[in-house]
Amino acid sequence: MLLKRNHSLYQTLVALFIGSIIFSASSFSQSGNLNVSAQNLKENNLQLSSSNQSVDAKDLSKVILDKYKPRVLEHLFNNKTIASNISSNSSIPAAIVVGVITPNGTQVSAYGNISKANPTPVDGNTAFDIASVSKTFVATVLADLVNQGVVKLSDPLEMYLPFNVTVPSYNGYKITLGDLATHSSGLPYQPSGWIVDKHYTTPQVYEFLSNSTFEDEPGTVAKYSNLGMGMVGHALSLKMGVTLEQLIEDRIFKVLGMNSSGIAMNATSISIPENIKPILAVGHMAGNESGLMFLPEAVQGAGAIYSTVNALLKYVSANIGLIDTKINPAMEETHSIRLPFYELQVPFPDPSGNESTPYAYEGLSWFSTTNLGTQIVWHNGGINGYSSFVGFNPDKQIGLVILCSCYFSDVPPIEMLKIAVPFLLYYPDTSPSLLS
User: Average of pLDDT values for 161-180?
Assistant: First the structure.
């Protein structure tokens, strides 16, 4: 059954900015009547920490941090519920780490602490939940297996699931791994009736899949689907006979030396490795600390990875060819434009100070934004307590990573995107109005 939807501008923006939230739709009541002023911030001894305490004017990571941090704080302190919580515990409910890579090297700047219980300042080695950026790792593994002839993008999903699992088909057409990885499977954003943070079993996820209805004809339009991309990771895990975490570890993390990266959950519960606990920035929602959100095993590829800025800069470095590894060809394959992504056709500031609307596309999981002369590749993410952005400009060989222990409902993702997308698209012609 095909379900038609008419998207208003508001719905389109919501699709972009909320699209990377992984099975999460929390709402918060706002109460209290407290105005937190700049003086309060000063009295709380909030300090900007950086990987280099003597930062020169060319430190782009600090420039971007200094642009993004006030937007985060403004949203947090305009929220009365959050302001009330801050008053009671004298701490900022957010930590931010920004990393920039160019052919000249890397720069990392940071703000905030790991948690109330652990006042250690965050830095490039602090771990965060990276949410939907996880999808790009699954896509890279997929491309790598395609290059090795192990799987094909044209393979039907049902080929890799147990024989008794019914995968919905469209007029006899069987959705493929390629459809799922480009968000063009026609499957919904998330299954109807899905309950946030519930510990579903794999058979229960199969049931959700079997009962899903198509929103569009497969292969015709890109519309974001957590269910779809989650099933790609699950299918590859079953094919290779190892957990998704082990698959990504073997094919990406170990290759790039991405230490302190992984999936902090098993099939039934959250399971944070002991060596990660002291360096894991605690997430925040409505001014309160929040635990990691559980994703069922069959959809963990949609957003279960944690990592650090320093590790992600290695990932970006390989993606833009600054280092040569055996997975570089697979990474390049994921960047290729495959479909327009109309949900991403939104305006961003350009160097003239005006807002223009670059073209938006979908690759293998990665988004692309172009101005018909420059292509940037990126993905953002959001899950309970965390927001993230990883992107790069392959031609200019620059990359950007932003990790924040703040949630979309508190700090809208547009605040991150309005800084990150123009920086990558227009650097070094970025005007002062964008980054001043």
Answer: 96
DSSP 162-209: -TT----EETTEEPBHHHHHTT-S---SS-TT--TT----HHHHHHHH
pTM given for the model: 0.88
| 91, 114, 204, 298, 391 from 199: Cα distances, Å | 31, 27, 10, 11, 31
At residue 28, φ and ψ (nearest 5 deg) are -130, 140
CA distance 49 to 47: 6
For residue 219, the model assigns a pLDDT of 92
- Reduced 3-state DSSP string for 130-153: CHHHHHHHHHHHHHHHHHCCCCCC
Closest CA to 145 of 260, 20, 241, 256: 241
Q: Which of 343, 361, 369 is nearest to 12 (CA)?
A: 343
pLDDT greater than 50 at residue 21: no
The β-bridge partners of 400 are 100, 391
Cα gap 406→72, rounded to integer Å:
8
Given pLDDT bands bounded at 50, 70 and 90, which one contains residue 90?
low
Which residues does 330 contact at the CB level (< 8 Å), separation at least 6? 140, 141, 143, 144, 146, 147
Assigned CATH for 61-132+242-435: 3.40.710.10
